[in-house]
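Appendix B. Raw example, untouched.
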Amino acid sequence: MQGARWMTVMGRHEEAIALARRALQLDPSSLVRRTSLVDAFYSARRYDEAGEQAQRILEIDPTYNRAVNLDLVDIYVATGSYQEAVAVQQESMRLQGVSEDTIAGFLDAYATSGMDGYWRWLLDYRTEQAKRQYVSPTDFAEIHAQLGEKDQAFEWLEKAYEERQGWLIWLKSQPHLDPLRDDPRFQDLLRRMNSVVWPRTGLIQHQLRYIEPKAW
């Protein structure tokens, strides 16, 4: 699974998918390995196949790993299936014990302003959350990217770079950042990432903090 993960980090998506498939064939009952295949398909922008595998996981075990629910949210957003994304997000929040008032605010934001309301509600939520606990700069960068606010997105990516944020190893493959890829600042950041020695062991240990989605 680590092999598939590193192929994804390097943007070698077909190799990542092949390795993830091989790992699953060796242990078809492993939901962790199937989740790795979901991630490989998602990063390759093969959203239909990613969705099929995520749904398969939930059919096997509806209580398994909140990451699967949030994978589905990402997949639905990427394919423009916004109602489905909101429904899964709502269920994920409820399973994590988020208050009904908070969920109602989220649903109202979407009902009133569509996906702009969705992302702005999430931005406000993360901003309040950051007053109580650490929230990764990349969370804010992703949200601003989805809102089309490139300058703000790059400000947060620069902050992540200054912190040597482990998540940045996914910069080359993360679909959330696709709105930024045609900007010269994105290519400059990739170049700087490639020119800095980031200790591999440290990256793995740091990145593992972000494989699991943030709690609501």
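End of appendix B.
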